[in-house]
Design goal:
By secondary structure, this protein is mostly helical. It is built from 6 helices and 5 strands; from the N terminus they run βββααββαααα. The strands form 2 sheets. It has a 3-stranded antiparallel beta sheet with strand order 1-5-4. The chain is globular, with a radius of gyration of 18 Å.
């Protein structure tokens, strides 16, 4: 494949197809990619859907600081590998400012990368910037620095536990299904809750399996009217 001219700009979007982010929880979505530890990664878009069912609120994972550091480091290692930059250029001793939530990610990253000299915009939960071959490395480096300064809360990058899976299942077959049906769609045939929980790590059930309508993808984005991730999944 011929490479593009160093001066030729292209619009780059980091979002649902990003191989390193977001949310390493194997949430089945229309578009997924492989991330850290071969877990599926979902997009992170602003907002969560209110879950008004009678489901018991889930109890998120409790991680030690050692576990948090391990997950964060694994995420950064994967991000650096994906950058294609040589290890000799990898920054060290970057001070962490704070952990951020999934819903903050796009805005925080866009602001940080812009301040790092790589103008970036938050775009419906993803990132958009214009780059050339000559500036690709600059943007990759800026993102690595910003992800190091503002890593996503590792609790939100850890696999969902049983209480969270039950809560998610209840949302899928209840409020989520009711919402997309109002727009002329429906979920795929759901398994039992028991099967859903047992198979989640191997073959997670995708409630939108086989439906590739772009309009449905927008409808079920976290910023859309029928988001796939319910509020309360990581606690109140």
């Amino acid at each position: 494949m011929a490479s593009r001219d160093d001066r030729e700009e292209q619009t780059v979007r980091i979002g649902e197809e990003d191989p390193v982010k977001r949310e390493i929880t194997r949430l089945p979505v229309l578009r997924v990619a492989v991330g850290v530890a071969a877990l599926l990664v979902t997009a992170v878009l602003a907002g969560c859907a209110a879950h008004d069912s009678d489901s018991v609120q889930p109890t998120p994972n409790v991680l030690s600081q050692t576990d948090k550091d391990r997950i964060t480091q694994a995420t950064l290692d994967q991000l650096w590998t994906e950058s294609g930059l040589p290890d000799t250029q990898r920054p060290t001793n970057i001070s962490r400012v704070r952990y951020i939530t999934l819903d903050e990610w796009a805005d925080v990253m866009a602001d940080c990368m812009t301040k790092q000299g790589a103008p970036t915009e938050a775009d419906q939960g993803g990132l958009t910037y214009r780059s050339t071959d000559a500036t690709d490395g600059q943007y990759a480096l800026a993102r690595y620095v910003c992800e190091s300064m503002y890593p996503t809360d590792p609790v939100m990058l850890s696999p969902l536990n049983v209480s969270q899976l039950r809560y998610l299942y209840s949302y899928y077959i209840g409020p989520f299904r009711e919402c997309i049906k109002k727009h002329g769609y429906d979920i795929s045939e759901p398994p039992s809750e028991k099967v859903f929980v047992e198979n989640y790590r191997r073959t997670p059930w995708n409630p939108l399996n086989g439906q590739n309508d772009p309009a449905l993808s927008q409808l079920t984005a976290q910023s859309g009217p029928c988001p796939q991730r319910p509020a309360g999944l990581y606690g109140k």
